Structures are given as structure tokens and as C-alpha cells.
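Section 5.1 Outputs to date
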Amino acid sequence: MKYTQLGRTGLKVSRLVLGTMNFGPLTNEADSHAIMDDALGAGINFFDTANVYGWGENKGRTEEILGTWFAQGGGRRDKVVLATKVYGNMAAEGDAWPNHDKLSALNIRRAVDASLKRLQTDHIDLYQFHHIDRDTPVEEIWQAIDTLIQQGKILYAGSSNFPGWKIAQTNETARRLGSYGLVSEQCLYNLAERRAEMEVIPAAREYGLGVIPWSPLQGGLLGGAIRKEREGGSGKRSSDRLKDSKIREQVQAYEDLLDKHGIEPGEAALAWLLTRPGVTGPIVGPRTAEQLESALRGIDLELSDEVLASLEEIFPGTGPSPEAFAW
């Protein structure tokens, strides 16, 4: 396994991040534990979750599954850089009160204590804001985060799904208050969805944030979707996207290119992200041990200059701001 620093911090994390969103809804507890054991055995030390994972009436279930895995001991918790998120409403349907979501100091305090209990740990390494809160002053958010850091409940703060301007505002406020600021941004970024290159990734790099891409296969589209469609195994999300003739043409060219070079599409998509400036590591969310094994092969794959150039032709980026939308 390869490791890198998380942004400007001294924290060393694996270049592949284990996403756990499927644990509970699609993967049962025993299989989830087995996947985490395999990931740790392969050297993955960066695990990502969120308090709302499990969804619906099972919100919090994914954190509970991680908690029972940590409780098995064997150094599991000490070896893992644990990241979770706060923002969504955790109250049961029909029981939500006004302060049961978003990023008020009250909800942050409530949410972190609940996550610690579900995760069966005394601290969270990376506490991430799952979405921007347009109503809560940034000063209030940092006051809550700094209190949690002083209490030893969290070590670092990160963002997720933030626009570039919000990254700048949040870290400039932190600088003014003497806070450490955001250390990471988790954003939608892959070969087929490159809008983050316009402003999000430049802002993250300017402020020393590690970039953690989610959906590296664009919902399966970059994982051999057309081949799987022919074999009768394509997922609904990718099948729906392939109804767009332009997208189908791009994906077909992508799969033809990789077939020519004997490369698996999903592995190529991960390997491409690892070549991108500012990227710490993509999040993979395996439902099975086999999917984890495929992701691990992507870490070791080095794409040739010829393949990288061809991928750029098939999936051209938007370009940086302001060139992307101005002369």
C-alpha cells in the first residue's frame, strides 16, 4: 500500500480510502467486518463513514457496524484513521425537531457524542461537514469544532461537497480566529465528472486540503458498464446514463481503449485519479470482497503516457476557472 500526507497535516493515510456506505443497507455486518479485515490487511488505514449512513429508519447503522468491528480489538482502532460526517437529520421520521440537523454548535455537540457512542471509540480522527450550512455563521462552527478538539473528541475537521468559495471563506475565518481550519475536502470527482477542477480542487490545494474523491467510478459508469450491460449485469444508474448517446459514445471509446491495452475499466478509473494533482486518495465502497480486490489492483496500476493522453481526449476536463467560462 502507498501512503501520503493528508493535505498539510502530518497525518499519513493510505492512497485508497475505504468507503462504508454500503455496510448495512447492502452488505450485512459479518461481510462488512470481513471486508474491513481484508482492507486493513492490505494496508488501507483510512476508513470513511457518516452518521446518516444506513439511511431511513436505519440511520446510524453503518457507524454501529464499524463500532462492533473496532470492539473486536486486535489493534483495529489504533490502526485506522477514522473519518465520519455531520449534517443530516438523525431523528426518527416524524420526530425531528428544529435543531436535529445541520451545523449549529448544538447539533455538532449532539451529533459527535452520538457518533462516538455508535463507533465505540473515544475520538474521531477526521470530522467532516457533509454539506454547507447556509444559516450557521462560520465563526459558530469553528467555536464548536475547537471545543471538541480541546476535549479530545476530534483531531481534524474536513469538508464534503463544498464549493471553492466556501472552502476559502471557511479557512479564512479559521485563520482569523486562530483555528487550524479544514484539512480535507471530499468531493465528486472522476474521469467523467471533472467540474471540481474548475474551483474546488484549486481552492483545496491553495489552502492545503487533501482532496478525497467520492464516486470514482461515476456510479458504475466507468467500471465497464457497457460490457456489463451486454452480459446482463449493468446497474440501473449506469444503464440510465447510457441512454444518453453522447455518454454512451464516450464510455464505449473508454472501454475500447482499455480493452486494447488489457486494462480493467474500474482499475483504470482509480489509477487515473491517483495521477491528479492534490488528490489524497479516492473512496471506494465495496459491497463484496471481490470489489475490494479490484480496487486494490487499481492502486498498483501505472497508466502510460499514451493511455493518459487518450483518456484526456475521451473525457476532456472543463479547465480551470476562469478559463473554463471566459476567454
